[in-house]
Design goal:
Elements lengths: L8 E5 L7 H9 L2 H4 L3 E6 L1 H11 L15 E4 L16 H19 L5 E4 L4 H6 L7 H9 L6 E6 L2 E5 L6 H7 L2 H17 L6 E5 L14 H15 L3 E6 L4 H6 L5 E4 L2 H12 L4 E5 L5 E4 L16 H20 L1
Parallel strand pairs: 1-2, 1-4, 2-3, 4-11, 6-9, 7-8, 7-9
Antiparallel strand pairs: 5-6, 5-10, 10-11
Helix pairs in contact: 1-3, 8-9
Length: 333
């Protein structure tokens, strides 16, 4: 897709068709201020868009020419399964549709046709039924894009970001993942993406792994032998990192405004805090890829599908973040 404007180009997919994603995207794109903020390509088909609009109680307008100021439909009817999608439960067909549409979005990135991707919630069971062998979509993105460097999911609330040293692994595997190199890489990535979002001098707090930050080695030596030296290394690179701090208090300090970002050691260490602080507004961004990929931090919410009550706070924040970071990347390209 080409455009004569300076607006970012956002590729949008509707996520798992069994969940709330389609109706969330319909609500999002029914707001004129959103369609005015970017050149949007909707990767879907007319059948899905019509059903999404009916569930959301809105009409999804689109055009064939981006100059019209409306989303452009990239029609993937050819990839749609013959059978109707089963709703409110994981299915192979739904997972395949979601992956096919995401692959089209990633191909747009490869061709230089998208500055950011926004996707509605996915269901990992559906993705694995459809043949995805990676633990999560981030690892799948890496494979499709051929990325070999460090990547991490980052979670975002207004005014607070988190990144993870380890992510979708069992707790038994966390210990092996807490290395000096991984802590430094994750800290660098958090600092980089915060700067890409517009912060000039991000302040990063780093979590300890063990209770009470290890009690000077009494409850484990990760803090002394790995995390603290990694924080010192980040400081040596000019990154404003502090810690390690006990994970049961660091988010109180972050909530008070002491940090712009918090680096956590494992998935739930940050996710529990973030979801308590703002479940209806959280965003997940895939960090370390050649393009920002944003999505709501919640799941497919099968229990509220089609009821017209799905909260749009997270999808709106994810769209805004894709526009902001995508716009900054487009301006410097």
């Amino acid at each position: 897709m080409s455009t004569a404007t300076n607006r970012p180009r956002i590729a949008v997919t509707l996520g798992d068709p069994a969940g709330v994603g389609p109706e969330l995207i319909a609500k999002l794109l029914s707001r004129p201020e959103n369609t005015a903020a970017a050149d949007i390509v909707l990767i879907s088909d007319e059948t899905e868009l019509k059903a999404a609009g009916e569930d959301a109680g809105v009409a999804v307008a689109y055009a064939s020419d981006p100059a019209a100021g409306l989303p452009v439909l990239h029609d993937n009817s050819a990839g749609r399964p013959v059978e109707a999608f089963t709703r409110r439960e994981p299915t192979e067909a739904g997972g395949r549709w979601a992956l096919d549409n995401l692959r089209i979005a990633l191909d747009m990135v490869k061709r230089g046709e998208a500055d950011a991707i926004l996707f509605a919630p996915l269901n990992k069971t559906s993705l694995h039924l459809a043949g995805m062998t990676e633990n999560d979509e981030l690892r799948w993105f890496e494979d499709v894009l051929g990325v070999e460097g460090f990547t991490s999911e980052l979670n975002v609330l207004p005014g607070l970001w988190t990144a993870r040293v380890t992510s979708h692994v069992s707790l038994a595997e966390v210990d092996a993942g807490i290395t000096h190199e991984n802590v430094v890489r994750a800290g660098r990535l958090l600092d980089q993406v915060l700067r890409e979002s517009g912060l000039q001098a991000p302040r990063i707090g780093v979590c300890a792994l063990n209770p009470h930050a290890g009690e000077n080695g009494r409850f484990g030596r990760h803090e002394l032998d790995v995390i603290a030296p990694a924080v010192a290394g980040l400081k040596g690179e000019g990154i404003d990192a502090k810690g390690p701090f006990p994970s049961d208090t660091i988010f109180l300090r972050a909530k008070a405004g002491e940090f712009d970002g918090v680096l956590t050691m494992y998935h739930d260490q940050g996710q529990i805090a973030m979801k308590l602080m703002g479940f209806d507004g959280g965003v997940t961004i895939a960090g370390g890829l050649p393009v920002p990929i944003c999505t709501p931090a919640h799941g497919t919410a099968f229990d509220v599908v089609g009821k017209g009550i799905a909260n749009t706070g997270s999808i709106q924040n994810a769209f805004d973040l894709a526009v902001r970071i995508g716009g900054r990347r487009a301006a410097t390209a």
